[in-house]
Design the sequence.
């Protein structure tokens, strides 16, 4: 990604004329998405067999992805990984319990 320094007048005229196509004005918040994948399916607990590993994968996959335009911490990714690992461990325990019962 090439960095440019634009004055406010050039920025306004470039965005109005459509000449600034490389201007980044939004980002996907992968940390919030990973945390949502980890927490929301708890209400429908059978889904956690899929969403637990998915939350862990998203946490590690997007660890170095650019976060919000405004700086954010990695706490959401850390929580998503922890919650996803807890779900995986609980499913493993349930399968072990049912198999040995």
Sequence:
């Amino acid at each position: 990604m090439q960095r440019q320094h634009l004055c406010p007048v050039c920025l306004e005229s470039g965005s109005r004329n459509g000449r600034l196509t490389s201007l980044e004005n939004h980002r996907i918040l992968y940390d919030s998405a990973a945390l949502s994948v980890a927490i929301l399916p708890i209400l429908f607990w059978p889904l956690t067999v899929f969403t637990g590993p998915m939350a862990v994968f998203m946490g590690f996959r997007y660890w170095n992805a650019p976060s919000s335009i405004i700086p954010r911490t990695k706490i959401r990714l850390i929580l998503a990984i922890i919650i996803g690992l807890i779900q995986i461990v609980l499913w493993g325990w349930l399968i072990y319990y049912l198999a040995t019962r």
Remarks:
- The helical segments are 8-17, 30-39, 48-61, 75-100.
- The longest helix spans residues 75-100.
- The chain has one domain: 27-100.
